[in-house]
Sequence to fold (413 residues):
Amino acid sequence: MALHPASSQGYGVLAGLEHLEGKGKEAEAAYRKAIELDPTNAVARNGLALLQMERGEYEEAREQLSETVARAPENPMGWANRGFLFTLIEKLADARSDYQEALDRDPTHYVTLSGLGLVALKEGRTEEAIQSFLKSSLLEPGFSQPHSFLAVAYYQLGQVDRALGELAVASRLDPKDPFPHLIAYLIYQDTYRPFEAIEEARRVLELLPYLKSVEEIENTKVGLSNLGSALLGFGLSEWSESYAQESFDPHNASSHFQASRRYNDNHYVAVSELVQGLLLDPLANSRSARYLDIIRKPRWDASLSGTWGDEDGGFSQQYSGIIQGYTRKLWETACSLAVQGYDKQGSVENGDSDGVSLALGLGIKPDYRNSLNVGFTAGRDEAGQPGSGPELDPDDRLKTENLSADLGYRHRF
Fold:
């Protein structure tokens, strides 16, 4: 730069190096200088747009990428990156259109093929997604991204070992990228392997400055994707809090879900954090009943359970059921309906009791700027006191009823 202080290409190269080192402010300044010196510098515009996407500055990124494809329509990278932006903000039809534009210019464009795989993964076409990721990785063996997404696809199919193998490849290709370790952490969490999960959480924390984005990661109401979750599940509450605070992001739902779980002994704090999390990501109202999807795809599932028994000569039963799902038909929508109940006939020593509760959760995201969360709970419990003989006292009973509803809306300015 000392020899050519007015070189747009030089500033573009410098910006790329700063970007790789996780120096966002320095990279942005260099990208903007490169564009100022040469507005047709597509590489610099692409780089700046990717940096803005990592920060969640989607409108700014869209402006840069639209300018890129307008100035250099023959360059497939601009179309591919704008397609990836549309994928992030759930405009999947627009994403497919831009990816097709990129492939029309270069049928072997590996970034585009990886992006098309991600679209297919989000739409629930897992096998098709796998083929796109494999093509991308074959065309550019040094490209780590498709291996991370391949791991998600394999995990959704229940192929845990293959998923972990792909993550090992991704981390070897890009040792500074924490994303493969974050996916591995989620897999180990979801399959109840706390030792491995803790080790992956440590690696993510070490590489956190290089984390590009977690927009694609599925959140759950128990905060599985937060780095402190594994330690909390292992009973190491102080270490869990340390990890959670180091990785805490007030704009990330998982941070609030983890805080709700961590402070469950304080009802008001726990509920407050849960509500904040659901406002940030109302789609967390539903999750897969088996393996975590990691990247959400359309699904519906149901689960039922019940127990029956005898308690001091009195029949008792408990039951529960939940129906939940996620769809992209009109808008991104997640919902769950859960019912729980019990009935104990009681005895001389233990009074009879019965009750039922219902909980409805509904989350809607029309776009990345707006989200709506609706919650409704109702319940009834009734209990009798033990009698002095074979018959229970019919006049000595306690009955409680509850009804609550929540409505929340969030707009991102």
Q: What stands out?
A: The chain has a mean pLDDT of 84. The longest strand covers residues 353-367. The two ends are 38 Å apart (CA to CA).
